[in-house]
Specification:
Length: about 425
């Protein structure tokens, strides 16, 4: 009986140990590795590992293969026939003077320049696939840069919550040690705890926002189980100037580099090329034919040369021609709409950059430093009962709101320059 109880206890202990070890291992696996990275390092990982970019590169190779295919000419056609059964000699597949062999060789000749027109269309489609790659790269890079700097400023905001939550927790712990001594009123204790719980809830929401951005960033760089801590050169950011380039130069850069604008232009070219091809398709193709007949014609060993061509009486490709002509007008309008969109996007992005830059530089930089210096002094004075609870909580709340606001202003300013990168093709963050 004692042995059974010992064995039972041993089994339970082993199970508990294994479960604890498993839980501990799970916690370790779920805890992400911290990577401290500069922006160019993150972008380098992104360029080499993002699966969407790798997939789009295969699409470019596929379109280039279609160009090679379009350059090929139609194959000649060979036909051979023979007698299956000779009724006079009663032979299967007879050969020689008792048999009959016929054959033909034909070659399709494309007229009206169809071959060259098809090659040009294939080359245009290949160019479109390349610009689709660059447009995808541009879009994903914009998301990556936005997430990177958003995480940076949210982490700065998280430090404010860490500081204030720690300070309030210390006050609550001090209240707990003085409980029942009559030094602190219950109303004051509840008010401080309410402020603490409110900040903890806000902090939890902030951490969730950071985790969502980290998840999106991990997908972009295709790296799992990491937590990226951005390293930002704040001095370089402060020196960014929205008026570094005149508006005309920015628009010219967009016209020269924007992949979506080039795709719109190539779609217009492609529709024009297709219209020319469809008009050429109305011209019948020529078929050259060479034939041989051993003894099935009016003379033995007959060799013939022939020409075949469709008669374009019923189908002159009218519908396809009309459709292709309409698509030219459609794509021209889409190209003009894309140009107008580029102009408006750049103007709006520049306006946002000027406004956010002006707002940030209009603030007194010493204000934040003085505010932070007073934070510890306010806590000490409250603990010494030199200031009231309301003054203490009001200052802490004001400090938090001011810091969150300045971080939001900084991010909005950087975000405006990121948008300028995206819309203009000029990398403001590196120039």
């Amino acid at each position: 009986m004692i042995i059974q109880r010992f064995l039972k206890f041993s089994i339970i202990a082993v199970c508990l140990f294994m479960a604890t070890k498993a839980n501990s291992q799970t916690d370790i696996n779920l805890r992400p590795d911290t990577l401290t990275l500069k922006l160019h390092s993150v972008e380098d990982i992104f360029l080499h590992k993002n699966l969407l970019l790798l997939a789009q590169r295969y699409n470019i190779d596929a379109q280039k293969a279609l160009v090679a295919q379009a350059k090929l000419f139609p194959n000649p056609t060979l036909t051979v026939g023979t007698t299956v059964y000779q009724t006079v000699t009663k032979q299967f597949f007879p050969i020689g003077k008792d048999g009959e062999i016929s054959g033909g060789l034909s070659q399709l000749i494309l007229l009206a320049g169809k071959h060259n027109k098809q090659v040009k269309m294939a080359m245009t489609n290949a160019s479109i696939s390349e610009y689709q790659f660059y447009d995808l790269l541009r879009t994903l890079k914009h998301t990556l840069e936005s997430d990177y700097f958003n995480i940076y400023y949210l982490l700065l905001s998280a430090k404010v919550y860490d500081t204030e939550i720690t300070a309030l927790q210390n006050v609550v712990d001090a209240f707990a040690r003085q409980n029942g001594k009559g030094y602190i009123s219950e109303k004051e204790v509840i008010r401080v705890k309410a402020q603490l719980y409110s900040m903890q809830s806000e902090y939890s929401d902030l951490r969730s926002q950071i985790n969502d951005l980290q998840s999106e960033l991990r997908l972009l760089i295709q790296t799992s189980n990491v937590f990226v801590i951005p390293v930002v050169d704040t001095v370089a950011l402060s020196e960014l100037k929205p008026d570094k380039y005149p508006l005309a130069a920015v628009i010219d850069s967009a016209y020269a580099t924007r992949p979506d604008l080039k795709i719109a232009k190539l779609n217009t070219d492609l529709s024009t090329q297709n219209y020319k091809l469809q008009k050429a398709m109305a011209v019948p193709d020529l078929t050259l034919q060479l034939g041989y007949d051993q003894q099935g014609s009016y003379i033995n060993n007959l060799t013939t040369l022939g020409v075949g061509i469709d008669l374009p009486f019923l189908n002159r490709n009218q519908g396809n021609i009309k459709s292709a002509k309409t698509m030219i007008k459609l794509n021209q309008l889409l190209y003009e709409a894309t140009q107008n969109g580029v102009n408006e996007q750049i103007y709006n992005a520049l306006q946002k950059a000027f406004e956010s830059d002006k707002l940030l530089k209009s603030r007194d930089m010493s204000f934040e430093k003085n505010f932070k210096h007073l934070l510890d002094e306010v806590l000490k004075n409250y603990q010494l009962r030199n200031i009231s609870l309301l003054d203490f909580l009001d200052f802490y709340d004001s400090y938090k709101q001011n810091t969150l606001q300045i971080n939001a202003i900084n991010f909005n300013r950087v975000s405006a320059f990121i948008d300028l990168n995206y819309y203009s093709g000029i990398d403001y963050l590196k120039n």
